[in-house]
Structure formats: structure tokens, C-alpha cells
Design brief:
MetI-like fold; single chain; 73% helix; mainly alpha; globular
């Protein structure tokens, strides 16, 4: 009898399901293997950019603002991409640009989602005068073209990185507010939210436990798209001279500083522009795949 019980116990152990964390990782890996080639390419691009952003000082022998040769020096073994208008190594500036441009854009996007996401959820949950007040403020901010408004505010308050992050985050949070409010309005009328209110749950509990989990997929997809827009906005401002200021390496300002080389058939100014375009395409590939997965649509074979 004891042997049978031990055998049954061993069999039960053998077929016992893996821990939830291991199962989650296995499911994620299985979904990743089934992802389309475009999504895998986008993930690879993002990982490469993150790696370069973290290890830029290790990947190049020169400093970010170090003058290493004459201005507009040609490509060579010592300097594979030549030098810029001040004699700084272009490859070094390109790698450090990943850290500065992408890092600042990521921080700005996170701040924009905190401002816009919280405001949109509060407006949808409370309704009434609070919804009207926040919505009208957002309408006023969205009535002015974002790039022109950003140029005006940066001219007034200065072009420091902190001002750049705050201004772009506030202006971009208006788009996040509209999305968060729209998807939250579809959730606050559900029965489980009304039941939570009848139980006497606080607004914070309802927001975090009932509303937020049900609107995360569209917000996560919007985060990827919004990151691209913020990234392009910062690069455009830097190209115009009001974004990330020298000597900090930035892809937008690198295009502006070396644009004269295009006249002589040199493609060096196109490299930072290509870096901007490649990251934008990669993020959009991943966002498209994520939207397809969360929409419940099935792949056609």
C-alpha cells in the first residue's frame, strides 16, 4: 500500500505544472518564436539601440566631445566614419547620440504618460466638472501646433535638457490624455466597476484594480507610437537648434552640423538620419505586432 501511494505521489510530482513564473516566461518565449519576421526585426533593432546606449563609452576609444582630427576628415581605419565640422569622431558621436537622444526621448515619454494617463483616467472616473475642466485645458493645448508651441516655449524658458523634457512631456501628454480618457470611459460603465463603487471602494482602488488593468493594452501600444513621435520631435528641435545643445551628441544636431557634406557627395550626414529612421521603423514593427496580438485577431495562414 505504501509503495502504491509513493508511486502515485511520484506520478503526481512528475506531471505537476511548472511554477507560474516559469510558465509565464515559457509562454512569452513561445509567443516570441511565433512572432512575424518584422516584429523580430523590430525587437532586434531595439535591443541593439539599448545595448549601444548603455555601453557607448566602452564601444569607442574617444570621448563624446573630444577633437581627434581636422574638420570633415575622410573615412579611415582610425576613424571609420571620419570627423564632423569640429574634428570630432563621427562614430563616437553617433554612438553617444543613441544614449542621449533615445534616453531623453524615453524619459520624456514616460513623463507624458504619467501626466496624460493619470489625467485621462481621473477625468473618465470622476466625470462632471473635473472631466470638463481637464478636457477643455487639453483642447486649448492641442489647438496650437505642437512643434511651433515647443519652439515658442523653449525660446521663452531656455533650452536646457530639463526644460526640453518637461515642455515636450506636457505637450505630448494631451494625446495620451485623449486616449486614456476614451478607453477609460468604456470601462467605467461596466458592471464590475459599479459593483466596486457600491461596495464603497475608494477611487484610487477602483482606478488601479479595476480600470487600469483593462486599458493597459491600448496604452502600451500608444507608448511605442508616442515614443516615436517624441523621439522625432526632439530630433527636429535639435536640428533647428533648440533641442539638445552642444557639446552633447544628438542625431538631429549632427545632421544639421554636417549637412554641407551632402554637397560633395558624402553620405556621412545621412547616418544619424538613418539611425533615427531605423529606430522609428523598428518600434512601429513591434507596436503593430503587439496591437495584432491584443486585438484578438487570428493570423491567416
Amino acid at each position: 500500500m505504501t509503495d502504491q501511494n509513493s508511486t502515485v505521489g511520484q506520478s503526481a510530482d512528475a506531471v505537476a505544472p511548472p511554477p507560474p513564473r516559469d510558465r509565464n516566461w515559457a509562454d512569452a518565449w513561445r509567443e516570441l518564436k511565433r512572432a512575424p519576421l518584422s516584429a523580430k526585426f523590430g525587437l532586434l533593432v531595439i535591443l541593439v539601440y539599448v545595448f549601444v546606449a548603455f555601453f557607448a563609452p566602452v564601444l569607442t576609444p574617444y570621448g563624446e566631445s573630444e577633437v581627434v582630427g581636422p574638420a570633415y576628415d575622410v573615412w579611415s581605419d582610425a576613424r571609420p566614419l571620419g570627423t564632423d565640422n569640429l574634428g570630432r569622431d563621427m562614430l563616437t558621436r553617433l554612438l553617444f547620440g543613441a544614449r542621449n537622444t533615445v534616453g531623453i526621448a524615453f524619459v520624456t515619454t514616460v513623463l507624458a504618460f504619467l501626466i496624460g494617463g493619470i489625467g485621462g483616467i481621473i477625468a473618465a472616473t470622476l466625470g462632471g466638472w473635473m472631466d470638463q475642466l481637464l478636457s477643455r485645458v487639453v483642447d486649448i493645448l492641442m489647438a496650437i501646433p505642437q512643434l511651433i508651441f515647443a519652439l515658442l516655449l523653449l525660446t521663452i524658458f531656455g533650452t536646457s535638457i530639463s526644460n526640453l523634457v518637461i515642455i515636450i512631456a506636457v505637450l505630448d501628454s494631451t494625446r495620451v490624455f485623449r486616449l486614456a480618457r476614451a478607453v477609460s470611459l468604456n470601462v467605467v460603465v461596466m458592471d464590475f466597476v459599479e459593483a466596486a463603487r457600491l461596495r464603497g471602494e475608494r477611487i484610487g482602488w477602483i482606478t488601479l484594480r479595476e480600470i487600469l488593468p483593462n486599458i493597459l493594452p491600448p496604452l502600451a501600444a500608444e507608448f511605442g507610437l508616442r515614443f516615436c513621435f517624441v523621439f522625432l520631435t526632439i530630433s527636429a528641435l535639435s536640428f533647428l537648434g533648440l533641442g539638445i545643445q552642444p557639446p552633447t551628441a544628438d542625431w538631429g544636431s549632427m545632421v544639421r552640423d554636417n549637412a554641407t557634406l551632402i554637397t560633395y557627395g558624402d553620405i556621412t550626414p545621412l547616418l544619424p538620419a538613418g539611425a533615427i529612421a531605423l529606430l522609428t521603423v523598428g518600434v512601429n514593427f513591434v507596436v503593430d505586432w503587439f496591437l495584432h496580438k491584443t486585438s484578438g485577431l487570428k493570423d491567416e495562414h
